[in-house]
Structures are given as C-alpha cells and as structure tokens.
C-alpha cells in the first residue's frame, strides 16, 4: 500500500506538469487574439459575411486559439507539425527539404485549398477556417520559422526576469503575456500604418511571407545566447518587432480571407 501511495503522489504531481509542457501555447493566446482582431478590421464586405456565416457570429479573435486547444486530443495529432517550419537559416523555404509530416506553410496552403473548394461542407469549412486563422498567426511568430537543430529555439535555455525559459518560449509567451495588456488593448495600441504600407504588407504569398519572417528569425537568434539573463532591456529592444509581427499577421490573415471569399 505504501508503494501505491507513493506512486499515486508522483503521478499527481508529474502528470499535470507533463501535460502543460506538451500544450504550451504558440504566440500566446493574447497574441493570436490580436492577430484575429486586426484581421477582422480589414476584411472586405464579402469576406466578412462569409466568415460570420461559417463562424456563426463568433469573431476571428474568439476562435483564434482553437488549433492550440485541440492539441490535447490525440485524434488531431497529425496537425501538430502544421504549427511551425524548421529549415536552414541560409536557405529559402522552397529550396529546403520539405518535412514529410507537413509544416505551417503546407498547413496554410491546405486550408486555403479546402476553403476555396465549393464542395467543402460546413463542418469541414469551420474546422479549416479556425485552423487557418491560427496558422497565419503562428507563421508570424519568428521562432516558428526556426532551425531544426535547436527545435526553433526551444533548446536555447535563457532566464526571463529570473525565471527559467528558452528563446522559443520568450517569443511565444513571455514577451506578450508579461506586458500585461488584454488582446483588445494591445490590438488598439499597435502602430498606425498608412494605406501604402498596409497594401505592401498584404501583398505577396505565403512563400514570400515565410522568407520575410525568416529574416526576422535570424536576427532573433543573434539576440540572445544560451544561459543569458533577459529582462527589461530585451523587451525594450524587441517590442517594436513583436508589434510589427502581430500587425503583419493580422493584415495577411485578412488578405488571405479576402482572397478566398471576396
């Protein structure tokens, strides 16, 4: 009985921690909602009506974390590789060896293809629309376009305000969550780009966007070394980049949805 009691105590403490590790959010829940909120403002009339119909009145922000929520269900395990892409920093995506399991670029392209298909049913459209909303956000989190050898920065251990973290987690969650703004506050505080800038950001394809994000990623890799202590200075230097990536992600999500439904 003593052994069973000790085993039960170990499971009680270990199981939630292991589950939390596996379900660590991407771009933080707040970040994904910001991307959704920005996109919502830039939908054209046809896209807005189509999206409202499929989502039954829910907003892009409200459903933006669906693709993370389903990670706890093994039935959706095949979609896990869609959240990121890892390829050499000195290569372009189309010149690199594709992952046989898929990646965020393939995932976005698959979602677009299914949503454009007039024979796609409502339930299938709902699923892949929610996935697309999330994946475009993931694409614009720099460490989701990382190096295979360090798992997109997950193996680069750092301190964040005295707490153990890693470079991937700093960009996934720490920078945004520790800033303390709600998603609506953060969305409203983003830079105000003029029409020409907005148009230029919304132009292009997912293949153009992944190369642009990789350029940011390469700079992020140079921003910290393993074991480094990061705090206010790091956030001050990189916060503009965080805002720019959130804004670009939202604008490009709108561009994709406008192209699909407009």
Outline the structure in words.
The protein is mainly alpha-helical. It has a single domain (38-261), classed as P1 Nuclease. The chain is 60% helix and 5% strand. The chain has twelve helices and five strands. It has a three-stranded mixed beta sheet. Helix 2 packs across helix 12 (232-261). The longest helix has 30 residues, at 232-261. This is S1/P1 nuclease. It comes from Robiginitalea aurantiaca.
The total tally of domains equals 1
Low-confidence stretches: 1-24
Strand content: 5-15%
How much helix, percentage-wise, in residues? 55-70%
SSE topology:
Layout: H1 2-22, H2 28-41, H3 45-55, H4 60-63, H5 66-69, E1 85-86, H6 104-116, H7 122-139, E2 145-146, E3 157-160, E4 163-166, H8 167-177, H9 183-189, H10 195-202, H11 206-221, E5 229-230, H12 232-261
Parallel strand pairs: 1-2, 3-5
Antiparallel strand pairs: 3-4
Helix pairs in contact: 2-7, 2-8, 2-9, 2-12, 3-12, 6-7, 7-12
Keywords: Disulfide bond, Endonuclease, Glycoprotein, Hydrolase, Metal-binding, Nuclease
InterPro entries: PLipase_C/P1_nuclease_dom_sf, S1/P1nuclease
Protein name: S1/P1 nuclease
Attribute tags:
disordered N terminus; mainly alpha; hydrolase; nuclease; 12 helices; P1 Nuclease; glycoprotein; three-stranded mixed β-sheet; 262 residues; metal-binding; globular; endonuclease
Outline of the structure:
The chain is mainly alpha-helical and 262 residues long.
């Amino acid at each position: 009985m003593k052994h069973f009691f000790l085993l039960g105590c170990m499971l009680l403490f270990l199981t939630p921690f292991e589950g939390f590790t596996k379900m660590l959010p991407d771009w933080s829940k707040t970040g994904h909602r910001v991307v959704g909120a920005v996109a919502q403002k830039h939908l054209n009339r046809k896209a807005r009506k189509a999206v409202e119909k499929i989502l039954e009145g829910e907003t892009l922000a409200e459903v933006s974390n669906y693709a993370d929520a389903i990670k706890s269900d093994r039935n959706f395990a095949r979609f896990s590789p869609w959240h990121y892409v890892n390829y050499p920093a000195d290569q372009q995506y189309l010149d690199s060896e594709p992952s046989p399991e898929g990646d965020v670029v393939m995932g976005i392209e698959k979602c677009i293809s299914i949503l454009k298909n007039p024979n796609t049913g409502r339930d299938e459209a709902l699923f892949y629309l929610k996935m697309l909303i999330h994946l475009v956000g993931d694409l614009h989190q720099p460490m989701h376009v990382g190096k295979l050898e360090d798992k997109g920065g997950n193996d680069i251990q750092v301190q964040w305000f005295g707490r153990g973290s890693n470079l991937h987690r700093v960009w996934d969650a720490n920078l945004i969550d520790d800033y303390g703004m709600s998603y609506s506050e953060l969305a409203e505080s983003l830079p105000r780009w003029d029409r020409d800038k907005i148009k230029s950001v919304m132009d292009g394809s997912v293949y153009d966007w992944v190369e642009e994000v990789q350029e940011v990623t390469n700079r992020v890799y140079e921003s910290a070394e393993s074991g480094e202590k990061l705090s206010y200075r790091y956030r001050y230097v990189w916060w503009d980049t965080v805002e720019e990536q959130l804004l670009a992600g939202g604008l490009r999500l709108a561009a994709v949805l406008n192209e699909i439904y407009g």
